[in-house]
Amino acid sequence: MAAHPPVQVPPHCLDPRVESLPPAPAPSADYRDRLDGVIVLVSDGHVYLAKACCASIRRSLGDIPITLFVDGADTDTSEVERLPGVSRLVVQEIAGPEYAHLCNGFWVKLVVFWKSPYERFLYLDADTLVWGDVRVYAEFDQYDFIAAFHFATRPSFNTATEVQRFVYDVDFVRQLAPNLDWRGNVLANNGVFFARRGVFPMATLIALRQLDCWRCYEQGVTNYLRWRALGEGTPRMGAQPIQLFPAEVSYGAEDRFLPRDCQRPVIIHWICKKPKLGRRYRTDTDYRKLFLTMTGRTKLLGLRLWLEDLNTWLQRHRRSLGRRLRGAGK
After folding, report:
1. pLDDT at residue 328, as a whole number
2. Please, what is the angle between helix 301-329 and helix 47-61, to 10°?
3. In this model, does residue 136 exceed pLDDT 50?
4. Are 184 and 203 in contact (CB under 8 A)?
5. Would the CA dihedral through 22, 303, 271, 121 be positive or negative?
6. 34, 140 contact by CB (below 8 A)
7. Is residue 220 within 8 Å of 168, Cβ to Cβ?
8. How far, in Å, CA of 207 to CA of 216, rounded?
9. What is the torsion angle, in degrees rounded to the nearest 10, for the CA atoms of residue 15, residue 21, residue 25 and residue 31?
């Protein structure tokens, strides 16, 4: 596969990989009554990311309740829970024994639709950062689900080949929903969305989860349900252009870098090349340090982060080695 050509940072833009974010724009109104809470998905190996994510939520959304949706009871989130107002739910436990085997990895995200502790919630992957009061987008008086589109572009589908690659098996889904028209529909990255609890029924989600036709796991399911609802008119679907992807080299500058004069809240999402040992991103580091200070650690911040990065790297390689050994033993 050919390498993507380098994207130059326009002079009027800020690169979150190497620059700190400026103060977020002040909200134009009081949006606190629009949202009941925030859900952050945390898996083993992404706890360090969740710390920065939760710190950014606290800075931008004040004392709004935060619930960690934890993939696996052994995932240790005790450090994240040091931040006031942060609680924890283990997905496999709340899903119940009959569904736990279906709810792992990327698929745990589906459980938020029927087990959210909040009626109106913002869902975030752990590798995101909130900049500004994003509750301005939580227009639940008009919508039941609000997707988070790219910041500037609207990548829509014009060929069945594109849908086949990024969303679902076109022939299979044509039998499932003959009237669904994918032409011109926009793919939304499912790492960020606003939703009302129950917008997609549990029975529907479980049935779709068991079909072998989806691309990108639960993202294919959610985009399918959103497209279907757009055609049928219910539930009510909305979308807002709020996601920036600074580390995704295949995207254009307009979807990677923050305009220096930006006056609307955004969510930074580290898809693909996440920050890690040996690959620090300035904005992520800033919020990880903010987390430490918010939880009473104010000294040796750089050393603390380096030790955490090292431990995360060791744990990742330990898990990888364990999987290889289990595979060799079969």
Report:
1. 57
2. 140
3. yes
4. no
5. negative
6. yes
7. yes
8. 17
9. 110
**pLDDT number for residue 2:** 45
Checking if the pLDDT of 329 tops 80, the result is no
CATH 1.10.3630 is right for the domain spanning 34-300 = no
pLDDT reported for residue 99: 87
Residue 233, both tokens? 């008119």
pTM above 0.90, yes or no: yes
In terms of Cβ atoms closer than 10 Å to its own Cβ (0-12, 13-18, 19+), residue 104 is: middle
Q: What is the pLDDT of residues 14-47, one digit of tens each?
A: 999 999 999 999 999 999 999 999 999 999 999 9
Q: Which residue has the tokens 């920050």?
A: 275
- Residue ranges covered by each domain of the chain: 34-300
pLDDT per residue over 100-114, tens digit each? 888 888 899 999 999
DSSP state string for 191-240: TEEEEETTSS-HHHHHHHHT-S-BSTTHHHHHHHHHHHHHHH--S-EEEE
**pLDDT per position as a tens digit, 274-289:** 999 999 999 999 999 9
Q: Tell me how crowded residue 106 is: count the other CB atoms within 10 A of its CB.
A: 16
**DSSP string computed for 264-294:** S-EEEE--SS--BTTB--HHHHHHHHHHHHH
Task: Please tell me the distance from the alpha carbon of residue 113 to that of residue 131, in angstroms, as a whole number.
Answer: 25
Q: Evaluate if residue 323 carries a pLDDT over 80.
A: no
Q: 67 forms bridges with which residues in the sheet?
A: 39, 87
Which has the closest alpha carbon to 166: 150, 186, 181, 151?
Answer: 186
161 Cβ contact list (under 8 Å, min separation 6): none
Residue 283 to residue 306: CA distance in whole angstroms: 16
DSSP 44: T
